[in-house]
Amino acid sequence: MTTTLVETPVGATAPAAAPTGARAQRTGAPLGRASGLTLGVVMLGLSLLVLLPLAAVGAEAATNGWSGFWASVTAPAAVDALVLTVTSSLVVTAVNVVMGTLLAWVLVRDDFPGKRWLELVIDVPFALPTIVAGLVILSVYGRNSPVGIDLFGTRWGIMVALLFVTLPFIARTVQPTLMAFDRDTEHAAATLGARPRTVFRRIVLPPLVPAIAAGAALAFARAMGEYGSVLLISGGLDKTQVSSMYAFSLYESYDFPGAAATATVLLVVSLVVLVGFEIVSHRAGRRG
Amino acid sequence: MSIQATGVVKRFGAFTALDDVDLDVHAGALTALLGPSGGGKSTLLRVIGGLETPDAGEVTIAGRDMTRVPAHERNVGFVFQHYAAFQHLSVYRNVAFGLEIRRRPKAEVRRRVNELLELVHLEELADRKPAQLSGGQRQRMALARALAAEPSVLLLDEPFGALDTKVRRELRGWLRALHDEVHVTTVFVTHDQEEALEVADEIVVVNKGKVEQVGSPSDLYDKPANDFVMEFMGPVTRLGGRLVRPHDVHVSAAHVDGAVPGRVARLQRIGFEVRADVTTADGDLWVQLTRGQADTLELTPGSDVWLRALA
Amino acid sequence: MADTLAPGRPTPVAGRGRGGRIALRTVGLAYVAILVLVPLGIITWRALSPGLPAFWAAISSQQAITAFRLTAEVAFASVLLGTAFGVALGILLTRYHFVGRRLLGVLADLPMAVSPIVAGLALVLVYGHNGWLGGPFEAAGVDIIYAVPGMILATTFVSLPLVLREVVPVLQEVGTDQEQAARVLGAGGWHTFWRITVPTIKPALTYGVVLALARCVGEFGAVAVVSGNVSGVGQTQTTTLVIAERVQQMEPGAYQLAFVLIVTTVAALLVAAHIRRKDELS
To answer: What is the pTM (predicted TM-score) of this model?
Structure first.
């Protein structure tokens, strides 16, 4: 079993870098009485909990028609928030692609005393309450920074907070794939004349791309929607307001259609990028 | 391109895989490293290939000292038991890999890859991915890949170990034929003595990190240097306190001076052979005869026989 | 693989060789230390340096006690719901086929891609007193939004995929052999479920539950929307919301509460790691 903290998704929202050994079961038994009933209950529950509420968001966003929606979405504050959110999320995801792969490499291929603790520390930001993460970041990079770095009210502060909470995603999706990797292919490439760097680039990395993409999708989704950890360091300034904060402020001023419009855009952008990641990982899997 | 290894020592922690091993392979030879699992033969092969660095000793290939030379500069071809196919590349790209690394012009790469694919009969499958090939096909691809960049030596680590018996037999003969055509110095590792006997010009028996014997198949089979080699190379049984081959025992129905008397406990007919289990004063053994011999001697369970070792 | 012969480390042929390995390790460790360890250290210091009396005051005030209670209530209820859903969904998705199976999987996984603020908003729009389903509940005198039930819904929403994601890979990998054997031996569906399926997924399930628990305890954004962030009388503030208030109102006691949550998180991770290690060794 290769369960990780951040496991590959069940549905089609992100590419599935399935742990080796997991047999994708296309077939299954037909529904019986008990299972059919369970399915009904589950579907009812999911509808009440997920489907209906998300539909309500879409509906609410459309309350004032297309023009109302468009006006909400193109308001300067909304645009600024979205731009900040998307760029921060992309930058942070990119950094994580590099650092996450590096960390996965260190976790799998290296051995040193305390390596187990490294795994644990990497998982902390994911499991930590977001507001606590925010306070942690604030205490280091805020106004009274003990290291003299004041990022309060800056984009950099936001990005550091996002880096913090998205740390484990890629590392933990790449780790199982790397562990199951057939080392002999690296040896084969070496005997064929490839230098270590080339072996990594041409033989090890390509099969890792699906896992990296899966982790990147999760990291991006998390960064896009992140609220608690960026709330404090942003300082409530307009220029450091991410979309989730903007939506919340609209909600607090009872502009539900506006909040819903922002939420809808946030959702759509997230999903579009996630689909993009899935396409990338698919292409990478087919090329060659 | 000849291969010499002198005084090779390799340890993994407290475990000594190779204990002062010498090896001498002539250019163009087809040599088998034969021995039981864990005996060190794979390690020796990997040392030659540069995939392991020895703790002591030297490795020379084609007259050049390769001991400290990393694998990617040795120009050796290596074939692995589980194929080590590059799953994300097509068969064509797999075979072309070594040439592409050496930045050969595209036209040359294409020519050479097609040449090799024809040699291993995989031309039709050039665009497939390794996952779509059978085990035997993958191994043929691996061979083509290893040969593509014209290595000075070809090393194979239990190349047929992961294959079905039938495919294994096919590829064995095929490797022999390939070697006859391509003439590259080849060393392969196997734990199957039948395979070594069938394919190799020369066999090196490796056990517990040491070389037990080096010789031609018939040398090893008929003139084993010690009990281990004898037991490993073929069937053995004990007569008069020493190991003999069951088919090298002369059986008489009448008393013969100096022969060991015994009684037939059991007779088994297996095809055209007859296996007789014989009880003697010193212990039990088994003897292998042809049907004709058994009939001439009129052997039945309970017959008295006199046994003499022929070799 | 030939590496299984060698108890030691094989000559590295990918990456950058021996020197490269030290470099990678250093970069990785430094990154993690700077990003995670140093900040955690600083906040621990900030939480503990005012001394024990201050610590006690921060966690024993009425507000804190109520917050702990609310956090525990909401978290446990959400974990229960999430686990029930997760296991049921896991089995349905891996052992049965039906129209819309893929869609169901996507739906169950969707909360991973949704911002907690959006989740909160979505629930308010349905269960709030002007919401689609708000009417009937209000008539019955049941408060969902700005009350504990709504907070449970919100927390369940965000943690729903966690148990599912742990359970599904195990179910897929284990396959149906054991269950089929049980069937042949005469066990009915329910029996098979309890005696065969559940023990098989128990480590993964426990792991998922621990993670979900940590997540539910730590939920902030969705609960901030749904609870109304009520302080004082009729408090709906969970521990995380109290921390936020204390920081934003510049009141003392935020670090201490945060420290408590950090300790619980790390404890949960240690338990989870222990479970995983025990399972790997068996």
So the answer is: 0.84
